[in-house]
Amino acid sequence: MKKIFRYLVLLASLSLHAAAWGDMADNGVECSVVMEKTRFDARETFPDFKLVFTNKGEARSMAAAEEQAPLTLSIADTSRFREGRITVRFRNEGNEPVRIPDEINDETADYFFLTVLRTERGNFRVLNRKVGKITFNRSLNYRELAPGQEYSVTIPVCLDEVDLEGWKQCSCELETRYYNQQGKDCFRGMLRATARLALQ
Hints:
The protein has 2 helices and 12 strands, in the order H-E-E-E-E-E-E-H-E-E-E-E-E-E. The chain has helices spanning about 1-20, 110, and strands at about 30-35, 50-55, 60-65, 70-75, 85-90, 100, 115-120, 125, 140-145, 150-155, 170-180, 190-200. Strands 8-7-11-12 form a 4-stranded antiparallel beta sheet. Strands 1-2-3 form a 3-stranded antiparallel beta sheet, with helices on one face. The chain is globular and about 45 Å long.
């Protein structure tokens, strides 16, 4: 039952993130999450799902499973994990410039990223302090990455539900997913990154 509850929490988080992707929801666009699987193992990666956006009766779906993209994401630094902070890195692997919203900070990170920690024992924790919708009532700031260029940003992770002492002897995997569906000429879609983590 605990695993089922965790996935319900995760699904709720994903649903709320879907609503958060831009001010599209204020313009009559509805978003729903369609799961691709009905049985899960907490030790697996996030289940694949589809986002379905509906605007004026017209539906458009976007698979959130991993796809080839010019922009990649990695977890660059976990040395401050116990302080509740990790650093992620974007890299443009394509041949053309890529833009992303330059709006990621401690207040907004939870709306762009969904981060989880899992152990080899099957323990599973969502590390977002909050989920929901974010609307920018102004023009967005942008960051453009040239081909081969990288950009690193430190984001918070919530450790309130993590038994740091009890999990010390466990092999852990940290996984984060970046979601964006807003911004003019920006990269839109999902990026995933994982890293092994030792809680010392």
